[in-house]
Amino acid sequence: MAKYMLVSFKTCPWVQRSASVLREKKVEFELRHIESDNRPDWFLAISPHRKVSLFESNAINEYLDDTIAPRLHPEAPIERAINRAWTDYVPTFASAVTATAYADTEAEYNKAAEGIPVPFERLEKAVEKQNSGPFFNGAKYSLVDAAYAPFLQRYVFLDRVKRLGHIEKFPRLKAWCAAPLDRDSTHSFPPDEFEAMYRSNLKRRNKWVSQFIEPERAAAE
Prior knowledge:
Strand order of the largest sheet: 1-2
Number of strands: 2
Distance between the termini: 26 Å
Number of domains: 2
CATH architecture of the largest domain: Up-down Bundle
Radius of gyration: 17 Å
Shape: globular
Helix content: 40-55%
CATH class of the largest domain: Mainly Alpha
């Protein structure tokens, strides 16, 4: 039996981050899926915020990095603190980048889309300052890469549903986006299958953008 178990619904980006870290560390783990709209009592009992348990993915990743080699955080204290600061920015980034998926009207969608360049510009400058790539810190994959990859991936998905066209204006961010998405550790499912799952969930929410999903590309979980 695997020592570690992650509990998640299939398209959860937060647990995807921790799965990526475990794969990078080549640790065997069990990924148990639950329904996002019907979370069992045993899950809620160990996850009071209805999130992952330890129970926050950030806390899980920090724990894993403290206890299992190889270390993904930088060794230098200042660099490590900078990385943690950018990891703390993930919820703000995620909210802005995926807001179009939750818009009820075209006006709300357009307003959400207009907000995407703000976090994109901040990350563009951060990546420029950190290193030349391909990852956030340069040649070495880190917890920052694991943290942002699921949300960069969802931007790519949403851009394919209805063209947003923002990331092309930020070449360093675009290059950084490609690096973790090309990495096997990012993916719990084959990429095409996972994108179909995401589209299916998006269609089921019945938000404004869902009308642009082609029926033949939507797949049931």
